[in-house]
Specification:
single chain; mainly alpha; 2 domains; membrane; transmembrane; Maln_transptMadL; transmembrane helix; Malonate transporter subunit MadL
Length: 122
């Protein structure tokens, strides 16, 4: 049933938000740090596990697929509501938490491009 897919997504979202709040408190930032991202990763892992175990029927998968596609607009909307001034005034750790992932992504792009080229050749 489609509602099961929505339920799985809701579970992942709640767990991701809790984990994002926990990480924020852990690093001393009064904000949710990556809650939607953690939820997306959890959704991917659960979805993959359910497929491997053949527990996922077509309608449940459709429910997951529909709402997982809605994540990008949700992330954009959440980003628009973030208070950057508060994050920057929270100290060096907040700035570092923003800069480090960007630098890691920039560093990984050549590696991903190389993997992509080698998989297209095969």
């Amino acid at each position: 049933m489609i509602i099961y897919g929505v339920g799985i997504l809701a579970f992942c979202y709640v767990v991701g938000q809790i984990f994002g709040e926990f990480i924020g408190k852990l690093i001393g930032v009064d904000a949710n740090v990556g809650g939607v991202g953690f939820a997306m990763i959890l959704l991917i892992l659960i979805n993959d596990w359910l497929k491997k175990k053949n527990y996922l029927d077509t309608s449940t998968e459709k429910g997951i697929l529909f709402w997982s596609q809605m994540y990008i607009p949700i992330v954009v909307a959440m980003s628009a509501t973030q208070n950057v001034k508060v994050a920057v005034s929270s100290g060096f750790m907040a700035i570092l938490a923003g800069i480090v992932p960007v630098l890691i992504c920039i560093a990984v792009i050549p590696f991903l491009a190389k993997i992509s080229k080698s998989s297209q050749i095969d």
